[in-house]
Amino acid sequence: MTAATTDHAIQVSFEFFPPADAAMEATLWCSLERLAPLAPGFVSVTYGADGSTRERTHNIVTRIQRQTALIGAPHLTCVGACRGEVLDIARSYWDEGVRHLVALRGDPPRGQGPYRPHPDGFAFAADLVAGLRALAPFDISVAAYPEVHPEAPSAAADLENLKRKIDAGASRAITQFFYDIGVRRRRHRRPDRARHPAHHALSAGGALRPRLWRERSAMAARALRRPR
Questions:
Q1: pLDDT at 5
Q2: 197-208: per-residue pLDDT in tens?
Q3: What CATH number has the domain spanning 13-223?
Q4: What is the DSSP letter of 37?
Q5: Can you tell me whether residue 7 is helix, strand or coil?
Q6: pLDDT tens digits, 170-200
Q7: Looking at the whole model, is its pTM more than 0.85?
């Protein structure tokens, strides 16, 4: 469905992983060409858990901006970098014409254990959003969790964390993938949720195409320590 189909058309976005080799890069560009007619609101490119794909993410997003009519949206995280370094990356994106970012806390590097903020960095996604908005008027997406973030002490606390991100300047929330659509519907229909300020943030559900069981299991395991 495209934006022109109806006045109330559903707008989608697509997320891509930075390609690791030439064959994967060819597949990515073929996928972009096939999906472009769907007129997505933007296409985002992920960021390695420890910033390991930073350069590849930058190259793909800036190429999207230069060579296609699509809107590229790089992921930025708080992990493994000081505030100045993160803001320098964001500034370089702005200079390249990139106006949309996906701001996340980020996953800790493999084997590190629980998340620990960089001593000179942004501690959490709300802090990152505030820093990015102070730098330039970016259009910023953040993460939301229909089934509640595993590190949140309660559903109410999780919603308050989303509110902090919206209050800091985020434009919308994109959901972490989930299996039970009923969970999202029930949370949105509860009176206490409907009255909460964060409820009115545009929340875009994440759709995940069917994959091999091994891949789905790995993604579900990573979701247990997803960014806030």
A1: 36
A2: 544 455 555 555
A3: 3.20.20.220
A4: G
A5: coil
A6: 999 888 766 666 655 555 554 444 444 544 4
A7: no
Is 15 known to be catalytic? yes
What is the residue-wise DSSP string for 194-226?
A: HTSGGGGSEEEPP------HHHHHHHHHHHTT-
In the DSSP assignment, the letter for residue 152 is -
Please report, for the chain, the start and end positions of each structural domain, with discontinuous segments joined by +.
13-223
pLDDT in tens, 41-60: 899 998 865 566 778 899 99
Token output for 187: 């949370």
Catalytic hit among 15, 25, 147, 151: 15
C-alpha separations of 214 from 62, 168, 210 in Å = 32, 37, 11
Q: Where are the beta strands (DSSP E) in the chain?
A: 13-16, 42-45, 72-77, 100-104, 139-144, 172-175, 202-204
- The C-alpha atoms of residue 13 and residue 33 are separated, in whole angstroms, by 14
Let me know: does 51 contact 80? Beta carbons within 8 Å: yes
Q: In what order do the strands lie in the sheet with 42-45?
A: 13-16, 42-45, 72-77, 100-104, 139-144, 172-175, 202-204
What are 210's two structure tokens? 């069917």
Section 107-117 average pLDDT: 81
